């Protein structure tokens, strides 16, 4: 992992060298790993591009940006740059990557939630109310267990500020 310079004007944005974009036959482009990733590994840090609430409500929500933004402090919305906007979705409890919004530094940090095998796709949970049909990599789709996990997902999506970014969306 290259962490770059550490001078006061430079903020390193670590990304594992083993990550790559690939096209999944059903899910489209996504992030995959060429090497195993141990649980707890910092996988990627994405800087964000911020949009004010008024600008977003007048323009952004009518574009593809609406599917890629996170709620941010002060009523703003944030677009994750780099690989941050390329992680596909897995339902709560099936994702292998977690994320935390770092409001102070304007980053989103992505971390391995479990050991991840070489060749595996890295996925986050978008929340319980996605706007598309879920195509999951997990073979067992027990609907009652999935509903229970989804009802718990709102609590699980809290970040370092204790706020739930999903509450900002009408997904």
TrEMBL record:
Q: Which residues form the SET domain?
A: 17-127
SUPFAM superfamilies attached here? SET domain
Q: Which InterPro entries match?
A: SET_dom, SET_dom_sf
Q: Which Pfam families match?
A: SET
Protein name, entry field: SET domain-containing protein
Q: Which organism is it from?
A: Coemansia umbellata
- What are the top taxonomic ranks of the organism? Eukaryota, Fungi, Fungi incertae sedis, Zoopagomycota, Kickxellomycotina
